[in-house]
Each structure stands twice: as C-alpha cells, then as structure tokens.
UniProtKB/TrEMBL annotation:
Cofactor(s) needed by this chain: FAD
This protein's encoding gene: trmFO
Domain of life: Bacteria
Swiss-Prot/TrEMBL GO biological process terms: tRNA methylation; tRNA wobble uridine modification
Entry keyword set: Cytoplasm, FAD, Flavoprotein, Methyltransferase, NAD, NADP, Transferase, tRNA processing
Catalytic activity: uridine(54) in tRNA + (6R)-5,10-methylene-5,6,7,8-tetrahydrofolate + NADH + H(+) = 5-methyluridine(54) in tRNA + (6S)-5,6,7,8-tetrahydrofolate + NAD(+); uridine(54) in tRNA + (6R)-5,10-methylene-5,6,7,8-tetrahydrofolate + NADPH + H(+) = 5-methyluridine(54) in tRNA + (6S)-5,6,7,8-tetrahydrofolate + NADP(+)
A Pfam family hit: GIDA
Organism this protein belongs to: Hyphomicrobium denitrificans (strain ATCC 51888 / DSM 1869 / NCIMB 11706 / TK 0415)
PANTHER family given in the database record: GLUCOSE INHIBITED DIVISION PROTEIN A (PTHR11806), METHYLENETETRAHYDROFOLATE--TRNA-(URACIL-5-)-METHYLTRANSFERASE TRMFO (PTHR11806:SF2)
Function field: Catalyzes the folate-dependent formation of 5-methyl-uridine at position 54 (M-5-U54) in all tRNAs.
This protein's record includes keyword Transmembrane helix: no
Protein name, entry field: Methylenetetrahydrofolate--tRNA-(uracil-5-)-methyltransferase TrmFO
Any one GO CC term of the record: cytosol
UniProt xrefs under InterPro entries: FAD/NAD-bd_sf, MnmG-rel, MnmG-rel_CS, MnmG_N, TrmFO
E.C. designation(s): 2.1.1.74
C-alpha cells in the first residue's frame, strides 16, 4: 500500500492543533505550520500552540443540559486533543470547564512536538500554499495574516467578513478585597474540578451600579481607523460599554446579573454583581467574566476600580480589541470544509464562521478527519445533523446566504455562531412526561427536551464513530 503524502496544516491554534492530532492518529504524516514567533499578532503573547488569548473558559461542561457541554462530550468521544488537554489542566469554575491557559498550551505543544508523525515548521505562509501541497487545512483563525487573507479573497472573489472580538482584563488575586467580594458559584453549582464556590463576586447596590454605568459610558474609548469603523461586533462577545449603550439595565440582565448569588453581608442577592473566575492553576490571577472592553487602558483602571472589592485592583492584563475575519462559508465551502474554488484547500476553526474555543477546535477535528479519510482513499460522511458536531457543520456550510434586502448585502447575512440547541433538528416527539410518568410543566418541559436532544446526539454520534472506525478497518484489510 502506498504511503499517503503528508497533509499540511497552516496555523497551530486550537483548530490547527486538533486537526494535526486527528490526522496523525489516522497514521498519516502531517506538517504543522505556525508563523509565531517569526511573525506575531496583536493578541498572542507566546509561541505556544493553542494559546488562549481571551477567556480561559471552555464554558459549560454539562452535556445533558447545555449545548456546549454536549459538544465537549462528543469531542471527548472522538479522541479530541484539545478536550484531553483541557481535562488534564482544568481549574475550578462552577459548572464550566476552565483551564490553566499556560499549562494547557504547553500540553498541546508537547503532545504534537513529541508525535513522530508531526513535523513542525515555524514561519509565515505569505500567500496561497504551494501547488505541490496536495492537501492543506488552513486554520489560521480570526487573526489570519494580511498576505494570506488577501490571497484567499483573490482566489474566492469574496470580500472577507470581519467583526471585533474583545479581551477581558485579568486581576491579581491578592489585590481583591475579600471583605467585600465572596466566593460562590451561581446557585452553588459545582462543575469539573470545582466546589460550588468557584467565582469571586463583587456586589453592587443600585446607586453603585448607576454610578458605574455613568463612569463606563463616559470613559474614553479606543478610536478605530476608518477602515475598521463599519466592522460589526459578534453579539456573544460585546464590550461592556457597548452593552451599556444599549440600555442602562442591559449589563444587570447580562454578565452582571445577580441571580443565584447570596451576599453574605446581607443574605440577599445584590442589585448587580461582577464575577471573577480563576485564570491560572496557582489561583493568583482572576479574570473579569464578560468584561471585554474597548476602554483605553488608563480608563479601565479608573472605571473598574469603582467596583466594590476592586478598589485596589492590580491588573495583570488589561482588556483590548482585535479584528477578526471569517469566510462566507455557506457560499465558499463544501460539506467536508473544502474550498469550492480549490478543493485541495480545507478550512477549519474560527475563520469558517464558528465562534468560541470549543467550536473552533471542533471544526479542526472534523477537517482533520475529512482530510485523513480522503488521503486513505475513502470519503467520510459528515456527522449527523442531530449531533452538536453535525449541527455546527450544517450551520457553516448550509447557513443563510442572501439577506432579505438584496444580494449585495449577502456577504454580511452569514454571521458567527456558538453551538446552541437551536442549531439541532427538533425532536420528532418532544417529551411530555418524566421518567416517573408525571406530566412535565413549564421550564422542566424545556429542560427535559434539551436532555432528550443530548441523549439522541450521543447515540447518533456513537453510531457515526463506529461506522467510520469500521470503514477504517475495512480499508486496512
């Protein structure tokens, strides 16, 4: 049997690292290209693989009741490197899977560096990959270099779509006043590695909240260049001041909602709350949950120190913005993530129009599996649309193409998306009774529907994994 040629993966972020792992586990050599440290970005600080540049959380790990938790579980069952590294270096974070970002990146870097089937090449790919690279996965993420981005736009004839993604501040733990802030997860919920008291909560009275909103709205913001001015934000990662501009209570019903948090000084929920989540294994750094911002650095220090408990806060990292680009994937990519205009090129990760760490890695997992199957002379069917993996793939390869207004605006009608139950097909029969035969009412009906969708997803994913394993076994005989 002829040994398959190496598959090239461009970019060693979450998606590229996952793609390289999936290719190598199929027994196929892979060349992993990473431009850092030769060429840096505005967001990355190291040359490590899978560096987390924003939050250190992979969000909920509850696979039965939360769509991103379901995606976690599906990826674990598909032997995901990213989830394995995340599980190994998890931190307490209530119901979420949060990781020590440095240890996590070091783990991914070591696993790939030590794999004999993986060759690592440092340096920028400053245009389309060479013609003699028969199979390429481009996983350069939202910060694709201008040279490569321009080459892709020229090849596809499409204008890249762009939005802003924001970074939240990180604070030194010993500068937080715990006579005011207290440890508690919302409703005392414990998660992987957690205790139910995994967040630091800074409470606000109504006057304190109103003063904070005034300071936030009045704070001096980063000014954008002319070519950036019309770039839209992704709604799942809005800067706090943009949320405040949408209404004075927007933050109080968003990242500053106080529900499920009992201030030990009063025994009641505060009017509003700012939560901080552990950011490293030593618990010396804590990030401000949902506090992405475009405030200037000096203004961040001034405004955020008006928060009770953070009056003496020392910042290890201040917030900021970076510009993200993504493809009009429903028009440009086929069901195996290949570029229709040049089928030797696949795309993976956030550049395809998914949003979030886990979603980006999931597209790397699928791209790696698709590329490996093709190299072995077989085509792998996409995972069922009833799974989180399949639903995400359906979104980016079959989403809305043309707006209701006119075709000229179609480029902006496709927007980045986190995994959610709304992307999965509805149940043929929604549950009406619980396991004891009692009729479901109100919110419990919705929760049981999610659980039923999750159980269906895991069953369908198991069948898909078994079928692809059988195909691989037949191929090797």
């Amino acid at each position: 049997m002829i040994k398959p040629a190496a598959i090239h993966v461009v970019g060693a972020g979450l998606a590229g690292s996952e793609a390289a792992h999936q290719i190598a586990r199929a027994g196929i050599p892979v060349v992993l290209h990473e431009m850092r440290p030769e060429r840096g970005t505005d967001a990355h600080k190291t040359d490590g693989f899978a560096e987390l540049v924003c939050s250190n959380s992979f969000r909920s790990d509850d696979w039965e009741n939360n769509a991103v938790g379901l995606l976690h579980e599906e990826m674990r069952r598909a032997d995901s490197l990213i989830l394995a590294a995340g599980d190994k270096h998890k931190l307490p974070a209530g119901g979420a899977l949060a990781v020590d970002r440095d240890a996590f990146s070091a783990e991914v870097t070591a696993r790939l560096s030590e794999n004999p089937l993986v060759t690592i090449v440092r340096g920028e790919i400053d245009g389309l990959p060479p013609d003699d690279w028969a199979s390429v996965i481009i996983a350069t993420g939202p910060l694709t270099s201008p040279a490569l981005s321009t080459a892709i736009a020229k090849l596809t004839g499409e204008d890249s779509l762009a939005f802003f993604d924001a970074i939240a501040p990180v604070i030194h733990r010993d500068s937080i006043d715990t006579s005011i802030a207290w440890f508690q997860s919302r409703y005392d919920k414990a998660g992987p590695g957690g205790t139910g008291a995994d967040y630091l909560n800074c409470p606000m009275t109504k006057p304190e909240y109103e003063a904070f909103i005034d300071a936030l709205l009045a704070g001096e913001k980063t000014s954008f260049k002319d070519w950036e001015a019309s770039t839209p934000y992704f709604d799942g990662c809005l800067p706090v001041e943009v949320m405040a501009e949408r209404g004075r209570d927007t933050l109080r019903y968003g990242p500053m909602k106080p529900v499920g948090l009992d201030d030990p000084r009063t025994g009641r929920w505060p009017y509003a709350v700012v939560q901080l989540r552990q950011d490293n294994a030593l618990a010396t750094l804590w990030n401000m949950v949902g506090f992405q911002t475009k405030l200037k650095h000096a203004e961040q220090v001034r405004v955020f120190r008006t928060i009770p408990g953070l009056q003496n806060a020392e910042f290890a990292r201040l917030g900021g913005l970076h510009r993200n680009t993504y493809l009009n994937s429903p028009k440009l990519l086929d069901r195996s993530l290949r570029l229709k205009a040049n089928s030797r090129l696949r795309f993976a990760g956030q550049i395809t129009g998914v949003e979030g760490y886990v979603e980006s890695a999931a597209m790397g997992l699928l791209a790696g599996r698709f590329a490996a199957a093709q190299a072995l002379g077989r085509e792998t069917d996409a995972p069922p649309a009833t799974t989180a993996l399949g639903a995400l793939l359906d979104h980016i390869t079959g989403g809305h193409l043309v707006s209701d207004d006119d075709e000229r605006s179609s480029a902006r009608s496709f927007q980045p998306m986190n995994i959610n139950y709304g992307l999965l097909p509805d149940l043929a029969q929604a549950p009406t009774h619980d396991q004891n035969g009692a009729r479901l009412k109100g919110p419990e009906r919705g929760r049981e529907k999610k659980r039923a969708m999750s159980r269906r997803a895991i069953a369908d994913l198991t069948r898909w994994l078994d079928e692809t394993a059988a195909q691989s076994a037949d191929q090797s005989v």
